[in-house]
Here is the input.
Amino acid sequence: MFADERRQVILELVRSNGAVSLRELSRIVKSSEVTVRRDLRLLESQGLLDRRHGGAVSPGALSHEPSYSEKSLVAGPEKVAIGELAASLVNDGDAIAIGAGTTTQAFVRRLAHFRELTVMTNSLLVAQALSRSRGVDVVMTGGSLRGSIFALVGTAAEQSFASMRLHKAFISGNGLSADRGLSTPNLLVAGVDRALVAAAEQVIVLADHTKIGIETMAQTVPPDQIDHLVTGDLTPEVELARFREIGVRVHVARINDEMLAKPAQDEVSPDHL
Here is the structure.
C-alpha cells in the first residue's frame, strides 16, 4: 500500500469511527506502528485528525458520539467474546446494573439462562433482550430517550440509579485509559453512567481493543474505581499491564472461529423494538 493510499485509509477509519487505536490502524493498513505514527503526525499537522495516547481521533472527536448503528460495525466478534467472559462474573441471586452500548448488548445475551437475577438498566435494547427471560427481573429507569443509542438519560434516569443498591455494574464507554479511566463524549450519558456506577459495590468495565488508550470528553469512571476490566486478546499487553499496576483485575477474552463466523447472531436489532 502506497503512503498516500495508506493515509487515506487511516483518515476514513478515524472519520467513520471517531477514534481508532494505533494497534487497530496498524493491523488494518498492514504497516508497522512506527510507520502509522509518522502518518498520524503528518495528518495532524494538516489539521485532518488529532493524535491521542495510543491512537487518533477526528478533530472535535472528544465530543463526537457515534450512534449505536456505527458502533455495531466495530469489533463484533471481540464484543461477543467479551460478553461471554463477562457473564462468568455474574452469579444467581445478583442484582446488577447494565449500561447502554453494543458491548454490554453482547454481554446481556448471555444472561437469559439465569434462574434468579435482577437487572437494572437505562438501555431499551438490554431490556428487550431480557424480556422473555423468566428468571431475570428487569427494572427500567425513567428518563428522556436518547435515540442514537436507545438509552434513557437525564435527571430521572440518574435518580432511579441513586435510589438503588446493587452488587455489580457492567458498563462500557467510548474510551478507556489507565490514566483517566472510562469516558464518554456526551454529558447526559456521562451523568447516568456515574449514577449507575455509584449504585454498585463492584464496577466491571467491558471494552474492546479499539477503546483502549482512547480518551473522550467526559470521565465516567476514574481508574481507581474500576474493579474488573474485561477486554479482548487484541488489546496490547503493555496496556493491560498498566491496568494491573493500578489494581484492576484484568480478564482477557479469546476470539474463536465460531464467533468470527457468526457475529451477527449476537446482536439485537433496534428495528425490532
Notes: The chain has two domains: 3-63, 69-267. Residues 147 and 188 are 13 Å apart (CA to CA). Residues 263-269 have pLDDT under 50 and may be disordered. Residues 3-63 form a domain with the Arc Repressor Mutant, subunit A fold (CATH 1.10.10.10).
